Amino acid sequence: MKRTIRPAKTLSGGVEPPGDKSISHRYAMLAALAEGTSELRHFAAAADCRSTLDCMKALGAEVKLDKNTARVTGHGLRGLKSTRRALDAGNSGTTMRLLAGILAGQTFTSQLTGDASLQKRPMRRVVGPLREMGADIRAREDNFAPLEIRGGHLHSIDFQMPMASAQVKSAVLLAGLFAEGETSVTEPARTRDHTEIALEDFGAPVEKHGKTIRVRGIGGDNGSLNLQARSLDIPGDLSAAVFFIAAASIFPDANLLIHNVGLNPTRTAILDVFASMGASLQMLSVRSAHGEIVGDLAVKGAPLKGGVIAGDQIPLVIDELPMLAALGPYTELGIEIRDAAELRVKESDRIAALAENLRRMGATVEERPDGLRVEGRHAGKLRGAEIQPYGDHRIAMAFAVAGLAAQGPTVIRDADCAGVSYPAFFDDLDRVAER
Ligand code: S3P
Predict the structure, then answer these.
(1) Helix locations, 133-279, DSSP H
(2) What is the DSSP letter of 416?
(3) Residues taking part in catalysis
């Protein structure tokens, strides 16, 4: 389905992003491993998190989804059951990588697959450490899904993570829950810590010292440990809110309130990037919720300077880079992204998809192996164009925002792909855009 974005005059009103995708995956998995029924309110309305719920259901948890409330009944840490059908992670890298950790610790064999895009994404990064812990895992070309995971008796490891990835960290910690002894993961740079927070909230023995996280498993003298079912509210997804922060920033007289947004410090580096570029952002009613932080964001239009995003900043803003790049032509100095080769193995090759679609809109772009440079306002105004998102939700949404201030209409092909994280995105955007 195509979606046409007509230029807007400004943005105003309020919007509430869907429940956080990263947190929803983790709560759904841990609830399925807990004893009893967990109630997960404001569960992400994202196809990705549906994939996680479906997988946990196939593994024996009872799952009910009523509007945005997921009720998941688990049967304890040893309560999962084998299923003959392959578990389908759809488009979701988080589902596949985190679940691989859980399945490595089971006493049965599982098949784990995904859509065409997910089958092209590297899995060796989780397969490697899980094998080290004792799991027997087969992968296509030893790197890609479908995966066959023969779980079994795992032993703990001290894993020095070679890359900054929350998914890899989480896969090892989740496997560590089932191992004998204490598993530790040391990160080279900080990544989102929702797994650690959620593990603690469900009652798992987890500790954090600097960049090292430890979890004690049930394989040894900790065999009687169980997770407790929880009643939890999921904060709105900051990575979804970012599309509205960007959109409001472009229009000088825009005034937007974004309600109920997750403000976990391992996710808010993007707000620092916006602030350093001159955006007008205010956090209101900041509160805590089950170890996570939540607040509202007031955004006003302001001229953006642009700048360079690189190094240790990259893993902390990895999902927001498509929006930042697509904002480049609306900034004074342009946007340069370095050290982000990881973007090439996301839901699409995001560097190539950004460069191609920015050029379609008339931007001046230099594509590099590990990033890109997008020229700022001096290179001319963007014009509406037909956008090819390559099935990638964040590319589709980033260019819908870029199209709001372009000359002439922008057509987003295959716009439904936004549903991977944010099914109501185009309707919400339409509601706050004044024409
Ligand atoms: C995620 C971690 C990040 C991010 C992804 C969600 C998570 O991936 O890009 O959208 O929920 O742990 P990496 O761990 O591969 O960096």
Answers:
(1) 166-176, 194-201, 238-250, 269-276
(2) G
(3) 319
From residue 299, alpha-carbon distances to 271, 279, 280, 286, 377 in Å are 11, 8, 6, 15, 21
Alpha helix segments (H runs only) across 59-149:
93-104, 124-132
In a 13 Å sphere around the CA of 407, the CA atoms on its Cβ side amount to 7
* Per-residue pLDDT tens digits for 201-237: 999 999 999 999 999 999 877 778 899 999 999 999 9
H or E element in which residue 53 lies: helix 47-58
Residue recorded with tokens 């997750």: 262
pLDDT tens digit string along 136-181?
Answer: 999 999 999 999 999 989 999 999 999 999 999 999 999 999 999 9
The three-state secondary structure class of 183 is strand
Q: Which atom of ligand 1 is nearest to the CA of 192?
A: 12
Find out whether the beta carbon of 410 lies less than 6 Å from any atom of ligand 1: no
The partner residues of 41 in beta bridges, in order of sequence, read 233
Ligand 1 centre from 97 Cα, in Å? 10
Q: What CA–CA distances, in Å, run from 211 to 62, 196, 288?
A: 35, 12, 23
Q: How far is the CA of 401 from the centre of ligand 1 (A)?
A: 23
Residue 20 Cβ contacting ligand 1 at under 6 Å: no
Check: pTM over 0.85? Answer yes or no: yes
Distance separating alpha carbons of residues 304 and 38, to the nearest angstrom: 43
Bridge partners, 297 (sequence order): 258, 283
Distances (CA, A) of 238 to 46, 74, 340, 421, 424: 14, 28, 20, 12, 15
- Which helix (H) or strand (E) segment holds residue 132: the answer is helix 124-132
- The amino acid at residue 80 is L
- Calpha distance 192→215 (Å, rounded): 17
Q: At what angle do helices 194-201 and 166-176 cross, to 10 degrees?
A: 30
pLDDT band at residue 316 under the 50/70/90 scheme: very high
Query: Ligand 1: which residue has its CA nearest to atom 10?
Result: 319
Return the residue matching tokens 């679609």.
357
Tokens of 226: 């169980």
Question: What is the number of H-type helices and E-type strands within the chain?
Answer: 13, 25
Residue 165 CB–ligand 1 contact under 6 Å = yes
- Token pair belonging to 295: 């607040």
